[in-house]
Amino acid sequence: MRLTLRVWRQPDPDSPGAMARYHLDDIDEHMSFLEMLDTLNERLILDGEEPVAFDHDCREGICGACSLVVNGQAHGPERTTTCQLHMRSFRDGDTIDVEPWRAGAFPVIRDLVVDRTAFDRIIQSGGYVSVPTGSAPDAHATPVAKADADRAFEHAECIGCGACVAACPNGSAMLFTSAKVNHLGALPQGGPERESRVLDMVATMDEEGFGGCTLAGECATACPKGIPLQSITAMNREWLRAGRRGGARRSS
């Protein structure tokens, strides 16, 4: 395959960026998208140029590090992570635009790498459960209903890649936050912090500068792990419930 790449290049957070054009020949359709970028970087290094910086780690669709907007779509034309996107999804002679996540809460560090530590701070504000000290409890010490376990696992699949934020026209992090809230809220171990968790995590999400949710649905469409849009409405119910109960406690 012969391809033309238009890649966002930005040397540091304080410098302006621009799209740079590159031409690649002999790209194998069985390559992953990141392997194609590796090929580009090998050529740039041989030519004495700076390679394109991009995030990656496991390259198995598990870690969520490969945060790229490909031709205007989070992770590209397939509903998968960028590392699991293959060049057979494109045609010979295509021009491909490669950009970083575009969201105010995800500032660009360099080229295609963005700072997603805002997600870490949301989790730190409430993404934990109380556990007693001592030896580990027996695996079946706390029974969990099958329906609750299934719902918890469904939301636990979130890998924190940020595609939901990149795809949302408002730059909202509601799908990510709701996945974390609903994952722990579905289990009995998450019960003690259930109310404080949703209030704290939503408050931190707002403080980090993410946009408001209007249920456009682009987040769920782009999510490579299939977190459902109903996750957001479930979290909204939890937030309203926690707010009412908290208000009642404060007034008493």
Adjacency order of strands in the biggest sheet = 2-1-5-3-4
Number of domains: 2
Oligomer: single chain
Mean pLDDT value? 93
CATH homologous superfamily (4th level) name of the largest domain:
Alpha-helical ferredoxin
Total helices: the number is 8
Q: What is the share of helical residues?
A: 25-40%
Secondary structural class:
alpha+beta
Report the CATH architecture of the largest domain. Answer: Orthogonal Bundle
Based on DSSP secondary structure assignment, what is the total number of beta strands?
7
- State the CATH class of the largest domain: Mainly Alpha
Low-confidence stretches: 247-252
Report, as a whole number of angstroms, the end-to-end distance. 70 Å
Q: What percent strand?
A: 5-15%
Radius of gyration: 21 Å
Along the chain, the helix and strand elements come as EEHEEEEEHHHHHHH
CATH fold assignment of the largest domain: Fumarate Reductase Iron-sulfur Protein, Chain B, domain 2
- What's the main sheet like? 5 strands, mixed
